[in-house]
Amino acid sequence: METFELTTITDEMQSSITHMAQMRNALIAFTKEVLIKDQDYGVVPGVQKPTLLKPGAEKLMNLYGMSVEFECTDKVLDIQSKFVAYTYKATAKNRDGRIVTQCEGSVNSYEPKYRYSWAERPRPDQATQDELKAAGTGKFRKSPGGWLWMERSENPDLVGMQNTLQKMAQKRAFVGAILLATNASEFFTQDVEDMGFIDVEGTVIEQDQKAAKRPVKEVKGTVPAREAKPAPAKAAKKAVVPAPLVAVAANEAPVQPEPEMAAIPGETRVAIEKADSVAALYLIHKNNTDLQKNDQFIKLLSTKKAELKKAVAA
Q1: Which of 63, 71, 119, 125 has minimal Cβ neighbours within 10 Å of its Cβ?
Q2: How many other C-beta atoms lie within 10 A of the C-beta of residue 150?
Q3: For 237, which DSSP code?
Q4: How many domains does the chain have?
Q5: pLDDT given for residue 282 in this prediction
Q6: DSSP at 186
């Protein structure tokens, strides 16, 4: 029986190698000369690959002369439980109509960014604050004018978001199909664009750190603020008294310091401290579902993300 050596390169294989090399070079040139940062792709500090966005995927589709067709493969519309879910399959075809690849993308209304919304509310008493924070439905948020009390509630019009959810499922399927069809996974990733929890909270933390470093102005004719003395042990039985306001200049409004949050397990803290990329932080957030509503946990991730960002910039 005749055998065929795997090391033998036929003319057809050599032609394919040459063609693939040319296409790769063309893709590199296209990325540098045509795609626009923050419009066609995004860069997340600590992540090796930039994230391909929908406009960039559309340009890649046109470059390769492809077309994409969508098919809804699964749909759930439960009015009573306010659960809406879509799964779409994107089929990428070449100029001859031949199928190049297929990819599915799904979304559902129970994803946090669709299910919940945060709104400013009047600040409740301390006991109610503690109760709402423990339930993950209340928290303080920094604003230019001081600390705001925010409360989370379920989106009252989830069913009305059907079109938004449909478009998101199609977008996820579309970008995934283009990455596969154009062999662009070497240069781009897709999933990182959903890591908004780090970017949003990180902005708050960075602003907070800058405010903390701002020196307190001295005003002549005023008496320096005295440090608060620890209350006697018997005072612990009395009602909880809000923390004293931070002393600031006479012409500035006092700022209410953020209350302390619940403790985070030691092993989780260590994992966050040792994380060497934003992608690692994302996995920590994803795997600790019981802490995803804990503000301190989110802020630890955000602070680490800010450190990684500074390290990359340096």
Answers
A1: 119
A2: 16
A3: G
A4: 3
A5: 74
A6: G
